[in-house]
């Protein structure tokens, strides 16, 4: 399962990580988010120990969603060394997310 990231844990888990971090910004009411969620969970298992994979519920955690200009969900951001290095808006196949992480490793 992907890590549940909140506004309170975002800086520590994402911005200070020494590994690439894939973050899925989602909401419970969002249909496409329900399609991306299981993909993110699979990737979390496959990249365990190599990358951090997590989810931010934008309804409950608005600070970082606003900070990174999340206007459409799902939006998946890839961070490395605290910086956004890649972005995917909308639903994409699992391979797309995996390639993004691979390029950052």
Structural write-up:
The chain is α/β, with parallel strands linked by helices and 105 residues long. It has one domain (3-104): 3-Layer(aba) Sandwich (Glutaredoxin), CATH 3.40.30.10. The chain is built from four helices and five strands. Strands 1-3-2-4-5 form a five-stranded mixed β-sheet, with helices on both faces. Strand 2 (21-26), helix 2 and strand 3 (52-57) form a beta-alpha-beta unit. The two termini are 20 Å apart. The mean pLDDT is 97.
CATH superfamily: Glutaredoxin
Task: Summarize model confidence as the mean pLDDT.
Answer: 97
The string of secondary-structure elements, in order, is EHEHEHEEH
Q: Provide the structure class.
A: alpha/beta
Rg computed from alpha carbons, rounded to a whole number of angstroms: 12 Å
User: Beta-strand level of the residues, as a percent range?
Assistant: 25-35%
Measured as a percent range, the helix fraction is 40-55%
Quaternary structure of the protein? single chain
CATH architecture: 3-Layer(aba) Sandwich
At the third CATH level, what is the topology name?
Answer: Glutaredoxin
């Amino acid at each position: 399962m992907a890590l549940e990231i909140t506004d309170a844990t975002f800086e520590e888990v994402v911005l200070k990580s020494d590994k690439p971090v894939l973050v899925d910004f989602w909401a419970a009411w969002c249909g496409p988010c329900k399609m991306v969620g299981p993909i993110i969970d699979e990737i979390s298992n496959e990249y365990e120990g190599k990358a951090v994979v997590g989810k931010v519920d934008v309804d409950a955690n608005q600070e970082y969603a606003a900070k990174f200009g999340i206007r459409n969900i799902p939006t998946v951001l890839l961070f490395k060394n605290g910086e956004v290095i890649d972005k995917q808006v909308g639903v994409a196949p699992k391979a797309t997310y995996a390639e993004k992480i691979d390029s950052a490793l």
